[in-house]
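Side project, low priority. Logging it here so it doesn't get lost.
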Amino acid sequence: MKTPILVVEDDRGMCELLEIGLGRRNFDVRWTTDPRSVLTRLMQDAVEAVVTDLHMPGLSGIELTKQLVGNRPDLPVVVITAFGSMESAVEAMRAGAYDFVTKPLEVDALALVLNRAVQHRALREEVKLLRKAVAATHSFGGMIGDGDEMRKVFDLVHRAAQTDVSVLITGESGTGKELVARSIHNQSPRKNGPFVPVNCSALPEHLLESELFGHTRGAFTDARNARRGLFQHADGGTLFLDEIGDLPLSLQPRLLRVLQERKVRPVGSDAEVDIDVRILAATHQKLEQAVEEKTFRGDLYYRLNVVQLHLPPLRTRGNDVLLLAQHFLDQTAARLGKRVERLNPKAAERLLAYNWPGNVRELHNCIERAVALSSYDQIGIDDLPERIRDHRPTQALLISDHPSELVSMEEIERRYILRVLDIVSGNKSLAAQILGFDRRTLYRKLEKFGLPS
C-alpha cells in the first residue's frame, strides 16, 4: 500500500511533478495549490505527512505549519525552502516542522525525509497506544497488569481490603509484595492510620525483638531510654511483616501471643499495652514446608494465613512486561528530564524473551538504566544490560511445581513463536514454514500477542 501524503504548493506544475516522482517511490500524493484549504482538506483525506512550500500567496508555509501543529500535532510537516536560506529553515523548525528540504528539489532526498517522518509518526502512535493500554489496565497502588492472573490478584486485594483479617502474601522476590500490602492498607478502613513495614530478615534477633515490641529504660545494655515498638507505632493502622519466614523461632511465640491477645509487652516490662493493629505478612519461602520441618510454628502460620494472596512471577505474565516497561520508562524519563519515549521493537523482543529472575524489581532497574544511558528518543538493544541483550531462551515451556506458575496454552504458543523467530534470526518466511503457518497467519499472531511484526 502506498503512503498517503498531502503536497501544498502554489505551482501546479511542481505539484504534478511531485505526484509522479513520489508516486514512483511508493507515495500516494494528493495536492493543493491553496494553502488556506488544507485544514478542510485534512478533514476529508487521511494522510500521514504534509509537504509545504515556504513562500506561497495568501498563507506562508510557516503560518500553515503553525496551524497544522496546533490542530494536528500528530501530523509531521516537511517544509520546502530555498537553498542556502538557513534562517527560513530554523524558523520552520521553531514553528514545529518535522524537517526541511532545500530547492532545487531532489525527489530521492524528499522521499527519504518523508519516510523518516512517517516512521516517526508511526512510532509516536505506538507510544500513545501503549500509554493508553497502561492507563486502561487494572491497577492498584502502582501495580500494573492486564492478564487474567493479575486481574485475580487485584480482585482479591480489593476484597481482602474490606475485611480486617490477616493476609499472607506469597511470591518470589521482586514480585511486588510490599506494593500489594500498601494497596490493601490504602483501600481498607484503616487507610488514615499508619502503615509500618519491617523486614524480619534485616535485623539480628535481639534488635528485632526490641524493634517489634519496644523496650523499657535499662532493659539491656545501651537501652538508655524507653522506646515504643513498631506494634505501638502501627496502632490504628497496619503492620507489614516482610520476609516473615525469617522470623527467629524464639520470637514466634511472642508474635503469636500479640496476635491472639491484641496486647504487647515491651522488653523489660511487666505491663502489657493494648494495641489495635492489622497484620499483613509476606514471604518468598514455602511456609507449609517450614512448618513440616519445625522451623516455623504451625499455629502462627495459620494465624497469619487467614487469606493467602500469591503473586505470579513476571515470566508468566506475558505482555505485562511491555506495559510495565513503558510505565517505568515514562516515570524515569520524567524524573531524569530525558526525552526518551519508547522501546524499539528489537529491545521489546528481548524484554519479552528474558526470564526475569528478579521479577518486576529487575525490570524496573533495567529500564532505569536504559533510560539513563539512551542517547535517543527510544531504548534500543544496546541500552539494555548485557544479560538481557545476549539472553537466548532455551525453553518454550515453564516447568514449575506451583499451580499458579503454570501457563496457558496461549502463553506457550507465544513463547514458542518467539523461540522459533530467535533461532531463525527473525526470518518470518522460514519461521512461518517451521510453525506450519502462512505468513499472514504469523503476522496476525504476532499482532495478537503484542510482538514486533
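Brief comment: Confidence is low (pLDDT under 50) at residues 394-400.
Revisit when time allows.
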